[in-house]
Amino acid sequence: MQEQAAEGAARIDCAVGPGAELGADCMVERTGDVLVIRHPDGSFRRLNAAGLGTADGSDPGQIVEDGETVEIRVAGDRYRWPQGAFDDGE
Questions:
Q1: Does residue 89 lie in a domain region?
Q2: Environment class of residue 34 by beta-carbon count within 10 Å: exposed (0-12), middle (13-18) or buried (19+)?
Q3: Are 21 and 13 in contact (CB under 8 A)?
Q4: Taken in order 46, 83, 23, 19, is the CA torsion positive or negative?
Q5: Whole-number Å distance between alpha carbons of 36 and 56
Q6: Does residue 23 belong to any structural domain of this protein?
Q7: CA 27 vs CA 6, 16, 38: distances in Å
Q8: pTM, entire model
Q9: Is 28 inside a domain boundary?
Q10: Domain extent for 63
Q11: pLDDT tens digits, one per residue of 32-55
C-alpha cells in the first residue's frame, strides 16, 4: 500500500498517462463528498463523489459505465472500479 493513502483506502485499476495499461496500481479513499485517488508516483486526483466530476480544477472528466464498472477518464488518465463501490454507506 502507498504510504500516503489513509488506512482503509481501496485499491483500484488505473492507467496514469496516455497509452498506459490498466493495472491495480492506484488507491482511493473517500473523505466526505470527495474521492481522493492516489497514483503510484505520489501524485493524486480528487473527484466529487456525487456525479464523479473533477474536484481539483483539472480537466473535465468523462464517465463510462457498463452496469458492472465505472470508468473515469481525465486528461489521459483512467480509473476503474466496481459500480457502487464508493457510494454513500459503502
A1: no
A2: middle
A3: no
A4: negative
A5: 10
A6: yes
A7: 9, 12, 5
A8: 0.81
A9: yes
A10: 10-82
A11: 888 899 999 999 988 887 776 666
DSSP codes joined into one string, 3-64: TTSPTT-EEEEEE-STTPPPEEEEEEEEETTEEEEEPTTS-EEEEETTT--BSSS-PPPEEE
Residue 89 phi/psi, 5-degree rounding, is 80, 5
**Distance from C-alpha of 83 to C-alpha of 72, rounded to nearest angstrom:** 12
Residue 90 is assigned to a structural domain of this protein: no
Stronger pLDDT, 7 or 83, i.e. the higher one = 83
Number of domains in the chain: 1
State the greatest distance between any 2 C-alpha atoms of the chain, in Å, as a whole number: 34
Strand partners, 63: 72
Sheet of 62-65, strands arranged across: 44-48, 34-38, 23-31, 10-15, 77-82, 69-74, 62-65
* Single-letter amino acid code for the residue at 55: A
Dist CA 65 CA 19 (whole Å): 20
